[in-house]
Amino acid sequence: MADDLGDEWWENQPAGAASSPEASGGEGGGDPEMQQETAPVPALSKKTKQPKECFLIQPKETKEDATKTRKRRKKKITDVLAKSEPKPGTPEDLQKLMKDYYSSNRSVIELEELNLPDSCFLKANDLTHSLSSYLKEICPKWVKLRKNHNEKKSVLMLIICSSAVRALELIRSMTAFRGDSKVMKLFAKHIKVQEQVKLLEKRVVHLGVGTPGRIKELVKQGGLNLNPLKFLVFDWNWRDQKLRRMMDIPEIRKEVFELLEMGVLSLCKSESLKLGLF
């Protein structure tokens, strides 16, 4: 009878109610002592992660990084030029640049032939002049000279600078000197060569202000005749945002010397053309 009751009780139990001690310990929450031992584990893990999240360790500068930084600083010429006082350009500066430029492909005799006489140089700007005051000093008879000029495709005075923006600045700053003179912009920005050639053919121009590259191209295409030219002025002392002068820029320097070989040097030697450094 007891066995029958035991079997009946066993059969009436819901499924899953009877389990082994191991199963009941896992499903029912387990031993309290086990919970106390495992509970602090996540708290410790959070504490170990906390410094990594709050504090960033900066990488130490290596010798290679320091060397690269020093090399980059050495390449900046603005730091050197900013600390040095500007010195006005002299005819000797132009002569030296010419010698350095041509020394690689000219013989000693040819280099001597490139030397310009002192008589072809005008007084250089001592950094106290405006453009108008400097031009008045080197050309006091400008009004009479321009009145006698009636040749087209030519100018009496050329002012050479490094950029179109600088050319516009120079044109605005020479108002007191130019008076009623006809001035022409001789640079490439927004102006085609053929347009400038046509303008030079149509009217008499007294003053030309522009870049050596465009002036050289006009001479090459026959749009500008250099023979009537009396004054050639370099915008020598002005510095751009990087503190570079016109002749410090390799591309500009190359174009200047190529222009000089297109008849300017021979005109200087014949003393019909004067050079000025503003």
Task: Describe the protein's architecture and organization.
The chain is of the alpha/beta class and 278 residues long. It has a domain at 86-277: Rossmann fold (3-Layer(aba) Sandwich), CATH 3.40.50.300. Helices cover 52% and strands 7% of the residues. The chain contains 15 helices and 5 strands. It has helices spanning 2-12, 21-27, 32-38, 40-54, 63-75, 77-83, 91-102, 108-113, 131-138, 142-147, 164-173, 175-178, 193-202, 212-220, 250-269; strands spanning 157-160, 183-186, 207-210, 231-234, 274-277. Strands 2-3-1-4-5 form a 5-stranded parallel beta sheet, sandwiched between helices. Strand 4 (231-234), helix 15 and strand 5 form a beta-alpha-beta unit. Helix 14 crosses helix 15 (250-269). The longest helix is centred in the C-terminal third of the chain and has 20 residues, at 250-269. The radius of gyration is 42 Å and the shape is globular. Residues 1-11 and 15-39 have low confidence and may be disordered.
